[in-house]
Amino acid sequence: MTESFKDIKLVASDMDGTLLNDQGELPKQLGSYMGDLQAQGVIFGIASGKPYYALEAVFKDRIKEMALVCSGGTFVSYQEETVYNSTIPKVGYRNLVRLIKEASKGIPALIANDKAYFDYQAKPYYDDFSDYVKIEFVEDLSQVEAEVNKVTAYFPDYDNKDYLQEYQEQISGPYTVMPSGAKWIDITMEGQSKGHGLDKLLEKLNYSPRELVVIGDSGNDTEMLSLTPHSFAMKNATDQVKSYANYTTSQSNNDQGVLEVYKKVLASKNESK
Asked: Which of 11, 25, 112, 191 is in Cβ range 3.0-4.6 Å of 213 for a Cys bridge?
């Protein structure tokens, strides 16, 4: 099995439920694995619903060598240079905010590349999304002037599944509606996904999907899991998500299951020498 990973040039992992445990902590050995992968010529990447600046706050100086697929695939960077940027026009995000307020218990937010704008209703739940780091609470999101990558609806009671179909039916036009974890529904321009963002990155790097490994656990990871034969679902993923992957880790995110994948890539690289 390790032999099939000898040509890998890029490893991309989801964050929540994959690289992070349920307490939001990175594996303690991650820095060592990142260095070992880089020494073998493998780019360490992240494919996340989180915006660029939130990932920058986590990885700090290491960001200079990383590939990042951010905000559900709408913003892509490599070594701090922008590769791809999809934004929602102002008239579009204004309309989406209105629809969210009318449709359900969801609390709207605008996610830009440099800041997150949340409706004041969300302020009591700040601890749930403090990892967005740069947050501004506003009374009227329709007055925000920003390059918005995605509009998201936040559900404090973990009930986005109760509203996903409603959102998909009511939000027409050139948009993609996607669940993100249990508390969020993300809305981007049509065709955007982590898989699409990774495809843009592969194009930039002149890599093929067979030179890519991806690791994920949730519904917004399915497109990237379908992109490459080297796809891993986490043990803690749902059966539906696992059906999109060719492999499943033996350990969950709480037991650092993601490190299994890095070990396989490194073992294959060492065997091929």
From this structure: 11
Q: Against a cut of 0.85, is the pTM above it?
A: yes
Two structure tokens written together for 114: 């440099």
Determine, yes or no, domain membership for 1: no
Sheet holding 148-154, edge to edge: 135-138, 116-119, 107-112, 148-154, 184-189, 175-180
**CB neighbours of residue 23 within 10 Å:** 6
Instruction: List the Cα angle 204/111/119 in 5-degree steps.
Output: 175
How many other CB atoms are found less than 10 A from the CB of residue 86?
Answer: 21
Q: What is the pLDDT of residues 184-230, one digit of tens each?
A: 899 999 999 999 999 999 999 999 999 999 999 998 999 999 999 99
CATH number where 99 lies: 3.30.1240.10
What CATH number did the domain enclosing 18 receive? 3.40.50.1000
Q: How far apart are CA 44 and CA 1, in angstroms?
A: 21
Sequence-separated (6 or more) residues with CB below 8 Å from residue 75: 51, 52, 68, 69, 82, 84, 85, 86, 113, 149, 197
CA distance 198 to 178: 17
What whole-number distance in Å separates Cα of residue 41 and Cα of residue 90? 41
Domain membership of residue 265 as a residue range? 10-85+192-271
In sequence order, the 6+-apart residues with CB closer than 8 A to the CB of 90 are 145, 148
Instruction: Say how far apart CA 39 and CA 32 lie, in whole Å.
Output: 11
Instruction: Classify residue 210: in a domain, yes or no.
Output: yes
Which residue, chain included where needed, has tokens 């990932």?
55
d(CA 198, CA 67): 9
